[in-house]
Amino acid sequence: MLFLSSNDPQEGSFGLILNRPAGQVVGDLLTEKILGPLASVPVFVGGPVATDQLIFASFKWHDVTQAMECRHHLVIDEASEVAEEGSAVLRAYIGYAGWGKGQLEGELSQSSWLVQKPEPSVLELERCPGLWREVTSSFGPWFRLAAEAPEDLSLN
Q: Does residue 154 belong to any structural domain of this protein?
């Protein structure tokens, strides 16, 4: 499941995958640094672009607007502040998903993506294993069938 953080037809788009934990925390990757609360921040696979980079992102749900805010590319000091405050969900990402000028709009016009407004619970770590199936199934019976198909179709 991808969270689209920024989208501009002229500038391109940026997103992070929400349900692909890497099974590590920041302290496992940055062993030479004193990280304090950042050491225990979970690491996720963010997408196929720039997989040699570690990106910090914070997610904050706003009850009034019913919208999720994502601040990405936080520097270590900003990420530390978010971790200490505890007012947002902080994650680290290896890579991200990105599109060039007009690319995502073209994919959307071809119905290549299912689009849904996020709920705050999509950030709950325990939901990660079933999140894609759960969200995909909510689009109707055909999508529910596709979501339940095994990843390896030879097992079908």
A: no
Question: Whose CA is closest to 4, among 64, 68, 53, 95?
Answer: 68
Q: Judge whether 142 lies within some domain.
A: no
- Residue 57 sits in a domain whose CATH number is 3.40.1740.10
Q: Spell out the residues 6+ positions from residue 42 whose beta carbon is closer than 8 angstroms to its own.
A: 21, 22, 24, 25, 91, 92, 125
Domains contained in the chain, number: 1
Predicted TM-score of the model (pTM) = 0.88
**Tally of CA atoms within 13 A in the half-sphere of 22 that contains its CB:** 21
Residues 6+ apart with CB under 8 A from 72: 5, 14, 16, 55, 56, 57, 93, 96
Q: Is residue 47 part of a domain?
A: yes
d(CA 39, CA 21): 15
- Residue 39 falls inside a structural domain: yes
pLDDT single digits (tens) 33-85: 889 999 999 999 999 999 999 999 999 999 999 999 999 999 999 999 999 99
Q: 82: which strand partners?
A: none
Backbone angles phi, psi at 53, to 5 degrees: -115, 145
- Domain encompassing residue 61: 2-113
